[in-house]
Amino acid sequence: MRVNKIARSVEFGFEPPEDGRRGTLIYYDAFEHASAIELNAAAAYAEERKFEKFVLYPIHEETAKRMGIASARPYHRRLDELHEWKRDTLNPDILVEGLDGKRKKYTPIDTALRHMADLYPKPFFLLMTPEMANRFASYASFDEWISKLRLVLTERPEAPHPKLVQASRRWDAMRDEKNG
Question: Could you tell me which of 8, 65, 69, 139 has the fewest CB atoms within 10 Å of its CB?
């Protein structure tokens, strides 16, 4: 197998960041039942892996409804809870993305990912629950996106979608049964 590497030029005197931080971890979810413990675990994962940005992307209730998440509370309540949690963490690298709140309607995951690709530093890692990852894998655009980003699942899925199984080299579980 031949791997093509892209040659990149940098300005004279360029120094890479000293702390080694790079990329963006995007937590895409309805945050319907996300507890502070789960959010803290995700933030700790982002810190441990030295991501430049950790972005929480709460989906609008219309998006949740179209994705089959029936009981999503109003968007603004979930958003307020995330902002409150963020204030408590005192971490400036945690961002709460508000695109769905601005649109106030169904936002396809493709639109959300393109929006974030324009705003945040690459490479991208998409953090999802196994259920959300299975939904994402069922979409036609999954094949395109899985080549552009890596998935991080909150835990190993019990019954992964066939496309997730096929792309198993492109995702990892945050909490692996082997690691606890």
Answer: 8
